[in-house]
Design a protein that fits this description.
Strand content: 5-15%
Largest sheet: 7 strands, parallel
Distance between the termini: 30 Å
Structural class: alpha/beta
Shape: globular
Number of strands: 7
Length: 241
Amino acid sequence: MNKTVTEAKEFALQAKELGKLAKANKIDMGICVPAIDLEPVKKILKKSLIVGAENVHYLEKGAYTGEISIPMLKDINIDWAIIGHSERRTYDNETSEKCNLKILALLKNNMVPVYCCGESLETYEANKTKEFVKEQIITGFKDVSSEDASKVVIAYEPIWAIGTGKNASKEIAEDICKYIRSIIKSLYGSKVASKIRILYGGSVKPNNIKEYLLQKDVDGALVGGASLVVESYKELLTNLL
């Protein structure tokens, strides 16, 4: 819940040229913004950077005041959406079952779900991370076909490392991302597991993004606070090159 339309447009104008640099280095880069910012930001960025929604409903329309639907997103050329972000799970009762309905609806509409999973500090300290994350992945991917599975982007974000300045080590990130890939392999086979993209999110900053992305099973980063200021957002890319 950051940036007015005016602020978001200013950010997009300053970040627009990054798209060329990212593409030249075969990097997919984008921003997910509040619903009110989507259309003006998309108009500025066009195909320069990916523009995604922070949430979406699984039904096309109905009496769901305050929600945003897939047809609404498609009408303004948005085809990425974050699903199950830890803040929505915590504050808005976003369950893995509800995420599953959203993932299925997005895939049906040829859109890209960015499915978030991750554990609380309590779960982490109880050494139940893998058990917890496995349930999120299996539930989230229920009824997703082998053909569609690799179209989903998974983002592992340990809740205890979000906005706390307490980031998981690169070894922890690699261990859990590797484990997630093994779950996908058990569900869909090695071809899908090797193709699917798994991101790490949790206090990722310009000065540590490269060490995370050098890990074998970490394919990218889902960045929060460090992406809000355009200078820092640019450094996330330039520090990878």
